[in-house]
Amino acid sequence: MVVLPGWVWRGGPVRRAVSVGLPAGVFFGAFVLAESGSWVGAVAAVLVLGPFYGIRVARRMGRVWPGARDLDPADRSAVVGAARRGEDIGDARLAPAVVDYCDGLRTAREQDRLLLWVILVFAGLAVALAVIDTSSGSTREAWVSWLFVLFFLVELTWWPRRQTRIMSRVEQAEQSARRLVRQRNAAGE
């Protein structure tokens, strides 16, 4: 969830599910088509995995940042954008939402770290399958298997660095938002 682009938050839960699920379904469908050559399998992957993944991610997004539903789409987008860029939100009214969003991202990142072993196991299985496909499968199967290994390498190397950069910016935005909250509270007393 940390690396999801900010525009995904613009809509409600259904739009978020479609915004994440449709590309994921197409991605998985393309893998099925490339590996098996079956259009039926590819369409089935899109129709099954797309909604499954989209609904799962949208529900998770709602759990880690429940305050998102209290904001209108423009405010929600402004909060996410400012936090991900590490900028001051500039609006004391939205500062608590920035803090809440930043807390949600930290929670999501910690949950992702707990699942690292699952990714490592599947990466190992993907390497084993790629070796088997290389030695006994078709050239197409071998290429797709090694491409799958490549995606696991991205998951294990690029994503963590990207998350670290985003979280660094998020912390800057959170500090600015907390200052705005303190200033608003001091002015209100």
TrEMBL record:
The chain crosses the membrane at residues 20-53, 114-131, 143-159. It comes from the Bacteria. Keywords: Membrane, Transmembrane, Transmembrane helix. The keyword Membrane applies. This is Uncharacterized protein. It comes from Streptomyces diastatochromogenes. The lineage of its organism: Bacteria, Bacillati, Actinomycetota, Actinomycetes, Kitasatosporales.
